[in-house]
Structure formats: structure tokens, C-alpha cells
Amino acid sequence: MDDKLISKVPEGPLAEKWTKHKAAIRVVSPANKRKLEIIVVGTGLGGASAAASLGELGYNVKIFCISDSPRRAHSIAAQGGINAAKNYQNDNDSIYRLFYDTIKGGDYRSREANVYRLAEVSNLIIDQCVAQGVPFARDYGGLLDNRSFGGAQVSRTFYARGQTGQQLLLGAYASLNRQIAKGSVKSYPRHEMLDLVMIDGEAKGIIARNLVTGEIERHGAHAVVIATGGYGNVFFLSTNAMNSNGSAAWQCYKKGAYFANPCFAQIHPTCIPVHGDQQSKLTLMSESLRNDGRIWVPKKMEDVMALRSGAKKASQIPEEDRDYYLERRYPAFGNLVPRDVASRAAKERCDAGYGVNGTGLAVFLDFSTAIKRLGKDVITARYGNLFQMYEKITAVNPYEEPMMIYPAIHYTMGGIWVDYNLQTTIPGLYAIGEANFSDHGGNRLGASALMQGLADGYFILPYTIGDYLSHKIQVPKTDTSHPAFDEAEKAVKEKINYFLNLKGTQPVDYYHKKLGLIMWDYVGMAREKAGLEKAIVEIKALKEEFLKNVYVPGENAEFNQELEKAIRLADYFEIGDLMARDALNREESCGGHFRVEMQTEEGETKRDDVNFLYVSAWEYKGEEAPVLHKEDLNFEFVKPSTRNYKD
Amino acid sequence: MNFTLKVWRQKDAKSKGHFETYKIENISPDTSFLEMMDILNEQLIREGNVPVAVNKGCHGSGPVAFDHDCREGICGMCSLYINGRAHGPDEEITTCQLHMRKFKDGETITIEPWRSAGFPIIKDLVVNRGAFDEILQAGGFISVNAGSAQDANAIPIPKKDADESMDAASCVGCGACVATCKNGSAMLFVSARVSSLALLPQGKIEGARRAKAMVAKMDELGFGACTNTQACQMECPKGVTVSHIARLNREFLCAKLKD
């Protein structure tokens, strides 16, 4: 194993690791915390909760976000809920069961100790959020309500209508605002991190661009935390917000932080299908809809044709002619199988010709059974805002006709490699939330992203970063006139000037859409050797054309959205390339990564625990090909087995 | 579908703005309003701004800057005054959820930024809503540090109160209420936060201080007074109602009486 890839997982029984670790690591006294500076980049659930908590502890925190306010971060769009092992429903849930479901849901490609810790702190998150005034759904007795999510047979998901991410983020943002008012956190909205600055091998600051004035700024610190989310927008069409991007994390990779499991991307089964080539993004319909919605396509090809031509409506197809394929294939979990399984099953039916819309790329999500059983009012109370959103976008009333859905890129499990302390391979550089790789393995379960972001930010990073900073109490504030800042700033300015001076002919999105198609075709839901090799070649050629022919209008010293996009797209080419390389290397199917060559006779994923029971961690080598390092995964407490959602 | 677009162009906060007129063609009715803006910008970039601009002397102003992010109606980033209405001609949506099927083929569409003294223009259709952050920093929180909370079910809250708190908390902070109000008042925004927390036992402890601090900050930042025209609730994309303003007034008056 590589000497940089030391996971630092403590010894001892699973349930005692975190407690023992907390007792063993060092803390910083309040007087010394005041002398230490921390930069947090990103203000989603991870970044906002981390910055607020670090501010509460007394550190000096600077927080950066690309939007006009920390509240815009894309965590806000999470709909369905957040998992916790409270067992309020008395359905035999426990920390162990949440841990087990998560590690199994991730297809045994995550670290046991990290996942157990996540389950362990999950209950504290719910307590914290309620104390902040998050209006979770409640029952008539005034106590908290739960619902079910994919990959679990218990109801452990806490929710606030279809706006859980929004409410949790507003809670974290409120705590952040409290610290900003106190002066412990300084906020830099409309700022984008364009490089990481390292001095003597340690992370010491960032270069940021003020997106309003174009000014290139230097910011120093004793430690830097990356909380900038995932890189799903490499596909152009995804459920991510338009401005979500992988560039801050990517600069860390280029400065030496290893990038782990880049090919593990989640394709969410319930998104509104693509309508045409003028489309800019795909809208997610919450997984919670699968609590009451049943997924089907017609059994008969003649019905498929009648649906496509408009001769028939879905509601006119009788029950016996419907193929509820998830219930048929996975009786035990039915419509609540994990996302990767549901997505592939939809693709399988559509590939077989049963897609129900004009493009042949859609299946039905039908509420008629639930409306009959529970009444329209109950369904409205549960999903009213989602039904309204669907109708606004598609002009179809889902109370009368089933929704049409199709899988879309949603989340990236891969990210910056971190150890048990959430520290990257660069000392002083931490990565939390979706930006790191650590907790979800090959597939993330629904309602677990919110849990991880807040676990990292409220309850893990504030402890572990202290261990590193306890050795820095004598270190003075970072001098931003250090040559390392000069050099980083110069490189950033050169990159900006390159794009502005190029004066090519095509806009940035022209290339981004093309990259997205390459990614979807070859590095999407089904991947195979020849396609992945082709993707690497095509991405390289497209990148060269982009660097010769893109047109970025305007100048640096102004609000310039095209310039922002160009800088991000340059990184997407490299991220897409690494995703393809990682997918090529991983000659097994696991979680969201499906290699066509590796499947069972029933078309299920075929994992290879003999050869691929490891985290792939890639090291940047400039113009040369990246180098693969492996962190072996040790399963001490659960035995990796074939995921079974059938019985 | 084809449209004529009258778009507000303004180089930066200090420059004088003006309308420019553009023609845009072959737009699918299923295209969202912001996707239509993307298409306009692609034309403006690719064609150097010449063929699509109708009025003379406006060449070279480049793509139109506008705020947007999640494009599913929840981040609150998108804005736009469309044909004289915040978020355009549909009920309870943000601009990103507006689709071109809501317009008539051949229609002239006027697109402006939020107009309010509290939201200075940054460029074209982009405004600075930092004042909203400042108002929330003045008191829009419950003072609880991470780690000090009791068990979540230790405080039962009547479902009705929790639901009403959630109604108020659904505010996305877009600023449509301010832009719509003839006085440029931020009362609906402020009341949404005050009311959401005032309905919960956890939030009551700091209720008086919160109401006074947030109202004082709103006044200080130059937002106007509320004269009960209720225009704000008509344009709120999340259906936040003026009943929350009533609750804010009650909280505020009770707090002031105790002073």
C-alpha cells in the first residue's frame, strides 16, 4: 500500500473506534483557537455546518461561496430527507442496521469505520437540527414523523415535506449567520477558489476570484477545508445546479491531493426525462415518491406504440397489461430498491424497446394505486409540492396520468481521498461532504448525503481538525506575500488571460454539451472497455479543440459568467478523462459502476472482491498519465456478499 | 415559437442602463424561460451580437448576465421581472420553472432586473441581495451550538404549529416580495423567518430580541415600510402569506411594549 494512503482507522471494536479516537486526538485551548485561521470553501450542508461549528469553537474562519449568498448552495435542492438511526418507529432500527444498510448499499466499497461513525453521529444531527428550529414533519402527537427510502426496510428518514435539504441548509446557514454576526466567521459570497496555495508541502491558503469585480485575491490560513460538492456536471445534463462544479477539488488534485474512485457516479432513477436539445438541466423527482409510486412499463409492444403515438393514455392500459418490473424482479424491496438497481432496471426495459415516450427513454411512476388506497388528500399532503413541480415542467397532471421518469446523473460518490480524520494526502487540507469519497462506496443510499454533509461538518471535522491544528499553535498567520502565493496568482491570471485572448468562435456550452454526450454514452450507466478507451481519445480531442477555439467574451475586471464557465469546463475535461480511466481500470461491476463485461445472467452487477476490493486513489502527474494507488479495504466486521434485494 | 425580447442592459452598478431589443426564433414551447435566455446568449456570443440586435448602436454588449443556479425552483437565485411581474406570468413559481408555453407565439417580452433600492444592480439583470443576509445575521437564528441539543423528540410540537412554521420556512429568499412592493418593503421576507421561529418553542426564547433586531436592520438597510397592499404574497413563488406579517407585527409590538 502507498505510504500516503494511511487511513488512520483506529484499532478496536467497531462501535468503540470513534470514541477511542476522540479520546486519543489532541485538542486546542480556547486561547489558542483565537490565533488560528481556517478557510472553508463551499457553503452547502458540509461547509456551512463546518464553518458555523468551527466559529462556535472560537477559530477564525473565512468562508467562500460562488453564489450571492451561502443559502444558495445546491444542498438546498435535496428533497426527500435525512437518515438517522433513532428507531422512533420501533421497527428494530439501530446504529448497526444503518451502518449495515449503508455499507451494503455502497456495494462494499467504503470503509467500515467511516460508515459506522456516520451512523453513530446520525442521531445527534436530528437533535441539532430540531434545536435550530428545522420544521421537520410531525405526527398529531407532536413527535417526529419518518418515511422509507431505497435500500432500507425500516422507516428512518426524517423529512420536511419535499424540501428537507432546504430546511437543513437554512438551519446550518442560520448558525453560520450567527457566527458571522459575532465576527468569528467572515463571509465571502460571489467568490470562487481558483487555486490552492501550498507552502513546504502544507495547505496554507487559496487564490480566489471576486466574481463581481474580477479581482484576484490571496487568502492565507492554517488549514483549508474543501466542501464544494461533486462533479456531476461533467455530464452537462444532470440534476446538479448549473453552477455546481468540480474545480476547487480539482485544483487540490493538481496540487497533489489524491482523487479517489472518480468513476463512482450515481445515476438517479426518478428524474424528468430529457425533452429536447434546448434543455439545460434535468429535474429530480424525489426518491420519496417511490414510497407510494409504482414503476411500470406496458407488457405489450402494441401498447408502447399506442402510448408513443398518443392513441392511448397510460390510465387506459389495464392492470394485467402492466409490467411492474421492480416488483417482479425484486419482490423483497420492490419499488424501494437502491438507486443504482432501479436505474439499471429502467434502462434495461427501455433498451428492450418498452420506453413510454417519444424518445423511448422513459418509464411510468404511477400513483393511482396509492390514491385509491389513501385518497388524494393524503397524497397531496405527502408530495403536493413535487406534483406541482412536475406539472409546471411537463404540463401533465400526475394525479390523473402517471409521471414519466428516466435516470439522470445526480451525485458523485468519488472525490478527494481522505483519511479517518477527513484529511487529504496534503497536510492541512481537509475535504468534507460530497467533495470527499469516504462514506458511500459504489452507490449512495437516498437520504444519506444530507446525513454525511452534516455529520462531517457538525460532529467530525471540528474534532479531527483540532488534532492537526494543535501542532500549529506557535505558527504565525500565513504571510500572503510568500512566493508560493505569487506563483499561484500568476498561474491563475495566465489561465484567465489565455481564455480572454483566445477569441475563438464557439461558446463554452457548445463544448460542454459535447463533453456531456461523450460522458453519457461511454461513461454513463453502462460502460465497456472499447467505449471507455474511445471516450478518453474523444475527450482529449475535444479538449484540444476547446482550448483552440472557444470564445470567451468580455474582460476579467467585470461580472463575467462566460469566463467562469470556461475555467470550470477546462477542468471538466480532465475530470471526465480521470473518470473514464478509473472506470477502465475497475474491471468489475459494483454499485453505480456497471461494466457490461461483468454481469450475471440476470443482468445484475458482478463484483470482483478478489481483485478490486480497494479504493482507487489517483495521483496527478501533469502531462503524463495519472498514477493509480490502492487503499485496500479491510472488512473486519461485515462480510462482503452479493447484494440481494430479491428476498 | 418566435419572440421579441426587450432586455435591460447595464454594464455595472455605476453605469446608466437601457433596453435592447432582440429577436429569437425556433423556441420549443417545452423550453424553460432561462433556457430561452441561454439560447439568446449563445446567439449573442456566436454572432458577435450583430444579427439578433434590432436597435442600432448596441453592438458589443455581449451575453446578458442573469442569476440562476438550481433551475428547479428552490435555490432562490433566479429573479427577473418579466412583462411587469416578478418571476413572470404564472402563479407560485420561480423564473426557472416558467416555460415558454405560457407565452403567445410572436409576443414581445420585457425582461428587467429586480427594481429596489435595497438591491443595487451588479450587471444587466443581476442584483445584489446581500441585504437579506445582513437582516438574517441580525437575529434570524436560534442560539444553539453544535453538540448542546437535547433529544429531538423531547420537545413535542403540535403538528399544526410545525406545519405553519414550515409554510413560512419555505421562503427561498429570492426577493420577489421586495421587487413587487411599491414601497420596496422586505416585510414578507423578514416575517417568514420571524414567524417560522416564533411558532416553535425553541424559537420563542429569543423571539422578542429577534423581531426587534431584524426589523431595525431592515429599516437601516433602506427597505420601505409595509402598507398592507399584499402585492408581495401575490408574487411569492412559495405562497408565503401576509398572515406571517401579522405575526411579525404582533411579535414586534409585544417586544417593544416590554422595553
Folded structure, characterized:
The complex is a heterodimer of chains A (647) and B (259). Chain A is of the alpha+beta class. Among the domains of chain A are: 269-409, Flavocytochrome C3, Chain A, domain 1; 483-613, Fumarate reductase/succinate dehydrogenase flavoprotein-like, C-terminal domain (Methane Monooxygenase Hydroxylase, Chain G, domain 1, Up-down Bundle). Chain A has 17 helices and 19 strands. Chain A has helices at 17-24, 30-33, 45-57, 95-105, 112-132, 164-182, 247-254, 301-309, 325-329, 339-351, 368-374, 376-394, 449-469, 483-502, 508-522, 529-549, 561-585, and strands at residues 37-41, 60-64, 82-83, 157-158, 185-188, 191-199, 202-210, 216-220, 223-226, 259-260, 265-271, 294-298, 322-323, 363-366, 403-412, 415-416, 429-431, 614-619, 627-632. A 5-stranded parallel sheet of chain A has the order 5-2-1-9-17, sandwiched between helices. In chain A, strand 6 and strand 7 form a beta hairpin. In chain A, helix 4 (95-105) packs across helix 5 (112-132) and helix 16 runs antiparallel to helix 17 (561-585). Chain A starts with 16 loop residues before the first helix and ends in a 15-residue tail after the last strand. The relative contact order of chain A is 0.16. In chain B, helix 2 (130-137) runs antiparallel to helix 7 (207-220), helix 3 runs antiparallel to helix 5 and helix 5 crosses helix 9 (243-258). Chain B folds into 2 domains: 3-123, Ubiquitin-like (UB roll) (Roll), CATH 3.10.20; 129-258, Alpha-helical ferredoxin (Fumarate Reductase Iron-sulfur Protein, Chain B, domain 2, Orthogonal Bundle). Chain B is elongated, with a radius of gyration of 21 Å. Mean pLDDT of chain B is 93; it is low at 54-59. In chain B, the strands form 2 sheets. Chain B has a 5-stranded mixed sheet with strand order 2-1-5-3-4. In chain B, strands 6-7 form a two-stranded antiparallel ribbon. Chain B has 259 residues and is an alpha+beta fold. In chain B, a hairpin with a 2-residue loop joins strand 6 (121-123) and strand 7 (126-127). In chain B, 34% of the residues lie in helices and 11% in strands. Chain B is built from 9 helices and 7 strands. Chains A and B meet through helix 3, helix 5, helix 6, helix 12 and helix 13 of A and helix 1, helix 2 and helix 3 of B.
